[in-house]
Design goal:
This is Response regulator. It is built from 6 helices and 5 strands, in the order βαβαβααβαβα. It has 141 residues and is an alpha/beta fold. The protein is globular, with a radius of gyration of 14 Å.
């Protein structure tokens, strides 16, 4: 994990993409933000770059490959798993069934997106600050 690396946001809703980007910019987050609308796009990105991402914020409900399937794919790939990029769900889906399903895999958090913009900014701030201060295997590379 490189704290200056890009933040990968896997979100198929354009309005949510816009609001999330606005919130990150208002928070003063200077990382490049890359948007992907589905899991296969993320996999393609990883196959075409050597850049070390800072964080993955992923919706659960996605076309082609949902967020849980994407995380499972990353975990099953030794090369991608070795990148040790924090994988955090940031989604409107907050059901007990979905949370339990997500935690069957190795994830670093599950956050429900608040409807209130101020709360959304606060939640994003907490996630970003936590991972910026957290020691991680890639901290030492």
């Amino acid at each position: 994990m490189s704290v200056s690396g890009p933040i990968l946001i896997v979100e198929d809703d354009k309005d949510d993409q816009f609001i999330t980007l606005e919130a990150l910019r208002e928070l003063g987050v200077n990382n490049q933000v890359l948007f992907f609308e589905n899991g296969p796009q993320v996999i393609q990105y990883f196959s075409s770059t050597t850049e070390q991402a800072f964080l993955i914020l992923c919706d659960v409900n996605l076309p082609l490959m949902n967020g849980i399937e994407l995380r499972d794919y990353i975990d099953s790939s030794p090369e991608l798993k070795k990148k040790a990029i924090p994988f955090v769900y940031f989604t409107t889906s907050g059901s007990a069934v979905m949370v339990n399903e997500a935690y069957k895999g190795s994830i670093q958090g599950y956050f429900q997106k608040p409807q209130n913009y101020g709360e959304l900014k606060g939640r994003l701030s907490s996630i970003i600050e936590y991972w910026k201060s957290c020691l991680h295997p890639n901290t030492f590379r």
